[in-house]
Design a protein that fits this description.
The protein has about 325 residues and is an alpha/beta fold. It has 2 domains: about 160 residues, Alpha-Beta Complex (Quinone Oxidoreductase, Chain A, domain 1), CATH 3.90.180; about 140 residues, Rossmann fold. Helices cover about 30% and strands about 25% of the residues. The strands form 3 sheets. Strands 3, 4, 5, 6, 7, 14 and 15 form a 7-stranded mixed β-sheet that branches. A 6-stranded parallel β-sheet has the order 10-9-8-11-12-13. Strands 1-2 form a two-stranded antiparallel ribbon. Strand 12, helix 8 and strand 13 form a beta-alpha-beta unit. Helix 4 crosses helix 5. The longest helix has 17 residues. It is globular.
Length: about 325
């Protein structure tokens, strides 16, 4: 089968299309013929070893564990392991391999009891491929922030792959949502349900005199100083994406701990930890018409280098989809 493989860390050009062996499902796995997958921030950060801690996860000098990237996918079940009972050949499914990666290929194996489900009835395979990374990340941090009805929530980076779900989920929980994005994405963020939008190219969100119960930063660019200006005392600052190198991220973690200890705000961060009910919860909202995904660009697998380049540039609306 064809797969996008990288054997060294570096720029998008280190990813090459190669012929590799098709995976064989174990007893509890299904083999999925991939119809669509995505390039997420996790993919390009793994590719370039940014932050450097990636090397501890995936090989100090060269990638060893995950040489085929891709965390989410949709497709059709082509074969099942002997112990599989939930799925059968021909089922249209969507799901995530998490940090095992491996979906930038024509086929991938996923465990039956993992993050895998038949796709939502009202979504195409392309659309359903672009749900898990952003949807699960947004859901985890909004739940951790205890977002509830009546609260004022600011989403910084509201038009990105996590931001588009954060806006919709915060509205689902009953919050008054303000989205921060660029001029080109204002209408998109409004269409997702944001009550207010701020164009960061024209207005500093911290200078408008607004006060929020929760600030969710999906791109690591809101900054502590600006965020604390608009966050009520004891409010929640969710930092889904840190910025800078290892030192910068460490400083950010220490600063967050100090701010939490003083009681000015509660700072939460880290990596989203999925729970078994995340996938059925998101699927239920999708089928109820309360949650949609956003696809910016589509690339064939042969153009994976350009897809990495575009995703890494940081200006995409929602998701970059790959069609193997």
């Amino acid at each position: 089968m064809k797969a996008a493989v990288y054997s060294r860390y570096g720029p998008p050009e280190v990813v090459e299309i190669q012929d590799v062996d098709r995976p064989v499902p174990e007893d509890n796995e299904v083999l999925v013929r991939i119809h669509a997958t995505t390039v997420t921030a996790a993919d390009w950060r793994m590719r370039k070893a940014d932050p450097a801690l990636v090397r501890i996860m995936n090989g100090l000098w060269a990638p060893k564990k995950a040489r085929i990237l891709g965390m989410e996918c949709s497709g059709v079940v082509e074969a099942t392991g002997g112990a599989v009972t939930r799925f059968r050949e021909g089922d249209q499914v969507f799901g995530s391999t998490g940090f095992k990666f491996g979906t930038h290929a024509e086929y991938a194996c996923l465990p039956e009891d993992g993050r895998l489900s038949t796709k939502p009835t009202n979504m195409s395979l392309e659309e359903s491929a672009a749900v898990m990374f952003g949807g699960v990340s947004a859901l985890y941090f909004l739940r951790k922030a205890n977002v509830e009805a009546g609260q004022k929530v600011l989403i910084y980076g509201a038009s990105g792959s996590v931001g588009v779900f954060a806006v919709q989920l915060a509205k689902h929980f009953g919050a008054h949502v303000t989205g921060v994005c660029s001029t080109a994405n204002l209408d998109l963020v409004r269409s997702l349900g944001a009550d207010e939008v701020i164009d960061y190219t024209k207005e500093d969100f911290s200078a408008a005199g607004r006060v929020y119960d929760v600030v969710v930063d999906t791109v690591g660019k809101s900054g502590f100083s600006r965020t604390l200006k608009v966050l009520k005392r004891g409010g929640i600052y969710a930092r889904i994406s840190g910025s800078g190198g290892v030192l910068g991220m460490l400083v950010g973690e220490l600063r967050g701990m100090w701010i939490s200890a003083t009681g000015k705000a509660k700072v939460i961060g880290g990596v989203a930890k999925p729970t078994p009910d995340d996938l059925p919860f998101l699927k239920g909202l999708i089928e109820a018409g309360d949650l949609v995904t956003v696809i910016d660009r589509r690339y064939p697998l042969d153009e994976i280098v350009e897809a990495h380049r575009y995703a890494e540039a940081g200006h995409k609306k929602g998701h970059v989809v790959i069609l193997p």
